[in-house]
Design goal:
- The complex is a heterodimer.
- Chain A is an alpha/beta fold.
- Helices cover about 50% and strands about 10% of the residues of chain A.
- Chain A has a domain at about 150-390: 3-Layer(aba) Sandwich (Glycerol-3-phosphate (1)-acyltransferase), CATH 3.40.1130.
- Chain A is built from 15 helices and eleven strands.
- Chain B contains ten helices and 13 strands.
- Chain B is an alpha/beta fold.
- Chain B is about 35% helix and about 20% strand.
- Classes of the chains: A alpha/beta, B alpha/beta.
- The interface of A and B includes residues 128, 140, 224, 226 and 240 of A.
Chain lengths: ~400, ~325
């Protein structure tokens, strides 16, 4: 506190006003504690000068306008608060009374209500609702335009996870070759009688890739003639292998897997394992050119030994709508048990993406170029297969 | 100073539209939308007098199956100065009398086309269906307008529809002055529409094919009528698939509508439905069962791009509106 120009304030005669942590003492001190506007400061300076003049007239100092306004605001707040408090108290007591009355007089109603609620469990409407819940098990009411059912897939996923982690102990190599966003056309070798390698690639990208992307597998036509299998495939996100479908998916920046070996790949005999068959007619190259999707070569090792086909029975396959019935050392001799694939150790290797943006519209018509590119991809996958096979020591233990 | 004279040409000319099949579902609703609209003068053709007639609707009783009816219609068109034809005189459900349906749909369309060509019509709008693509396992998931119509020829209802489309294509080639619009709505659903599919979905127990669960799409009746109105208002030459929003598997549709599906292997179901169909107990012929086996979704992106048509109702809402009215019908609260 300045000593010379400001007179001492007697705290005895006038106690400072205590308001919400803000100490508002007498006028002279207030000038220093409260931030004031320049105008108010001027007034205060005048006041102080006055005070300086009359030495004994300390308490006659007029309170500053700023301070008066502040006090008014504070008083107003007080009033408002007390009014609100009164009202709140009143309404609280009112509701309390009401509630107690309600409890007192509506006890009987509450009891009958409980009884009604209990009985309503047995009403036809409730039973119908419960039946509907059962019916809608693993069925979502909104699906993807290609039929991917998220609820059904979530229910089916643990089974595939089990196969992935425990049965085949799949190990992925180069998963980061798959882009985190944007389209991509995965091209893979195909094998295994029961084409489950596609499901394992989908699971691997879902589980191992940082972006956990959903991949749509293109499935051979014949699967769509087979009962149960067709609806299962639709629900889990597989799509019939048609140019239109693949184009639509890639245009929506999705990942698509194709197996250009097709049926020839699935029905590969054990003696031909890891020998890539002819790669269709290069439809997938045209597709990648048209949609500018990068081609990502994929090599699946282990699947070709999981279901060692030693022969094919065409006439048996016709009975179930399949192109043939695979014959293995265990199937069909051991019945359904023989159809269980062997627990081999699997490797899925993702190669580096091949850029397809440099090709023009005219290149799509160039069949020789397409054949050449297709052959390049085929040799790339064959190389990848050989690389993994070289490092592998055992079929079952990797 | 020259004054602008008001001549007849300054007025907005009223369009003279002939609508055939005024008693059909689309026809009757379309005419209600266009009634009392001073822009249109409607020449209504049907074999039966409609219950709804307004000032700007002129009704002519015409039976399309009669011989030499093309000359009669051409006379009507000439007399009225018809500029546009909306051809809606089709059956909404398969019938057992296939010779009659052939006469009405194929020969009837031929007659209308003859008359239209005679008066050099400006615009021709015709209703077809996406069922004409057929349900095949090899269909792509979304059938575009360029895809060939490959419905099972065993189903006379669709065989006629395909033949009609061929006739219209030939008409379009011969009459380059005409704007030919072919609208192919998918299965129409809604509170008031009645066709063989709504009849199929109306029964409490529904036959399904064991092991097959195709994706379905529906279009709401309001959306279909809107599309026809828009096609009349502006010129959109070409073929357009008219589909609703979203798809659902057949099994989910049954579950959502509280129906009990009875899965039966296809060969048994086929013979069962054949018997029921010949006994007048089934609304669908046996050849329809393919549509419960394989997906037959149509791609509506062309209509979205060119006609700016986007269905207002998602498939669930369409289904709910139909099922809700169906429940009221069961309680005999509505007709």
């Amino acid at each position: 506190m300045p000593k010379n120009n400001i007179p001492a304030v007697s705290t005895k005669t006038k106690r400072p006003v205590q308001l919400k942590g803000l100490t508002v003492p007498d006028t002279a001190v207030a000038v220093q504690t409260i931030k004031l506007s320049p105008q108010a400061k001027k007034i205060n300076v005048i006041n102080l000068k006055k005070q300086k003049k009359s030495k004994y007239d300390r308490y006659t100092a007029v309170p500053s306008q700023e301070f008066a306004a502040l006090m008014k605001v504070i008083e107003g707040k007080f009033d408002e608060f007390s009014r609100n408090y009164d009202e709140k108290l009143k309404s609280a007591t009112k509701t309390l009374n009401k509630n107690t009355n309600a409890i007192r007089f509506n006890l009987a109603d509450a009891v009958t209500g409980k009884v009604k609620e209990f009985l309503s469990q047995f009403s036809t409407q409730k039973i119908k609702e419960q039946l509907a819940n059962v019916a809608m098990w693993a069925t979502s009411t909104e699906i993807d335009e290609f039929g991917l059912d998220p609820v059904f897939t979530a229910k089916a996923k643990p089974f595939f996870d089990l196969l992935y982690n425990k049965w085949w102990r799949v190990q992925t190599i180069g998963i980061n070759n798959i882009p985190a966003t944007g389209r991509g056309l995965l091209v893979s070798n195909h094998s295994g009688g029961i084409p489950i390698d596609g499901a394992m690639i989908v699971t691997s990208i879902l589980n191992e890739h940082p972006a956990s992307r959903i991949t749509r597998a293109l499935v051979e036509d014949f699967a769509y003639y087979m009962p149960f299998i067709n609806s299962f495939l639709i629900k889990t996100g597989a799509v019939r292998a048609a140019q239109e479908n693949a184009e639509r998916l890639l245009e929506k920046d999705q990942l698509v897997i194709v197996f250009p070996e097709g049926l020839k790949g699935i029905g590969k005999l054990f003696k031909d394992r890891y020998k890539l068959q002819r790669f269709g007619r290069g439809g997938y190259i045209k597709l990648a050119m048209r949609t500018h999707a990068p081609i990502i070569p994929v090599a699946v090792v282990g699947a070709e030994e999981a279901f060692p086909i030693i022969g094919r029975a065409d006439w048996l396959g016709k009975l179930i709508g399949a192109p043939y019935l695979p014959i293995t050392p265990f199937f069909p001799w051991l019945g359904p048990i023989g159809a269980i694939p062997l627990p081999t150790k699997w490797y899925i290797k993702f190669g580096e993406p091949i850029d397809m943006t440099k090709y023009s519209e005219e290149d799509i018509e160039d069949d020789i170029l397409i054949n050449k590119l297709s052959e390049n991809v085929r040799t790339r996958i064959q190389e990848m297969l050989m690389e993994v096979l070289k490092q592998r020591k055992s079929i079952f233990f990797g | 100073m020259r004054h602008k004279t008001i001549t007849k040409d300054n007025f907005k000319k009223t369009k003279k539209i002939a609508i055939t099949g005024i008693n059909s579902f689309i026809g009757s609703n379309l005419v209600r939308r266009l009634a009392n609209n001073p822009d249109y003068q409607i020449i209504a053709l049907d074999s039966r007098k409609p219950d709804f007639l307004e000032k700007n609707i002129k009704f002519y009783k015409v039976d399309l199956t009669e011989p030499m009816v093309d000359a009669v219609i051409a006379g009507i068109f000439k007399k009225e100065g018809t500029q546009e034809v909306v051809h809606l005189a089709f059956l909404s459900s398969p019938v057992k009398n296939t010779s009659f349906s052939h006469e009405l749909e194929v020969i009837g369309t031929l007659n209308i086309l003859h008359a239209s060509a005679a008066v050099k019509i400006k615009k021709f709008i015709i209703r077809s269906t996406t069922m004409a693509y057929g349900a095949n396992a090899t269909n792509p998931n979304f059938l575009t307008e360029e895809y060939p119509l490959m419905a099972d020829p065993k189903m006379a209802y669709l065989r006629d529809k395909i033949e009609v489309e061929h006739l219209v294509r030939r008409f379009k080639d011969k009459n380059p002055q005409a704007v030919v619009t072919v609208l192919r709505p998918c299965a129409i659903m809604g509170p008031t529409v009645k066709n063989f599919l709504t009849a199929y979905f109306a029964s409490p127990v529904i036959l399904t094919i064991l092991g097959f669960d195709p994706l379905f799409q529906f279009v709401h009746e309001e959306d279909v009528i809107d599309v026809f109105r828009v096609a009349i208002e502006d010129d959109y030459p070409g073929i357009f698939n008219i589909v609703g929003r979203g798809v659902l598997p057949f099994s989910t549709i049954l579950k959502l509508s509280g129906k009990i599906g009875i899965p039966i292997p296809y060969p048994i179901a086929y013979s069962m439905i054949s018997m029921l169909w010949s006994a007048n107990l089934s609304p669908v012929p046996p050849s329809f069962l393919n549509f419960l086996k394989y997906t037959w979704l149509a791609d509506g992106s062309k209509a979205k791009k060119i006609m700016k048509f986007e269905a207002r109702y998602p498939i669930k809402d369409t289904l709910e509106s139909f099922m809700g009215t169906q429940r009221l019908r069961e309680l005999r609260l509505v007709e």
